[in-house]
Amino acid sequence: MRILLAEDEEQLARVLKMAMTSSGYTVDAVDNGQKAVDLAKENAYDVIILDIMMPVKDGITALKEIRESGNQTYVIMLTAMAEVDDRVNGLDSGADDYITKPFSLRELLARLRSLERRTTTSKQALHFDDLTLDSEEQVMESSNSISLTREETQMLAYLIRNAGKPLSPAAILDNVWGNEKADEEDVWINISYLRQKLSSIQSHAQIAGEKGGLYMLKE
To answer: pTM of the prediction?
Structure first.
């Protein structure tokens, strides 16, 4: 998974990044909310970890801007504030989870592993423009419907969750195939199949990008 960490406490940020990197995650770390907003717009993340008390732009304001941009990435808030109202404010602003400082590093890593399992096995229907993806049935629908392979389903789900963002073949490989043996040719082949199937169901959604370059789902 690729994680965006926004934490202004230098020592804590260093420890968190080291622990998550050692667990196999790719981590981009920033020290204020504005940098988090900017990176969230540019890159595809699986998880965003936001501290609330940060300079330039606090975590709640950053979270609201991220959600207003249409970004649906899973967000975990970090804060030293333990009051119920503070937690409610964070969740109402669009956070998915909440961890109060001081917290156990093992617990944070366990939550990330749990999220990773849920993301892999998610049966939730996803929507983009006139397109609906039923991950459980491996079917996408627009004017009509068509069946997808497991790889096409996971690739389209990743594209929908990160619609409007350029995605590298390496990121798609990691998200769809994980540790399974595959290469950029497999990415290109499945992109080509998805384009044909999108056309066959007359969807307005398009996958932009050339072989070996960046791919992006757009209207």
So the answer is: 0.75
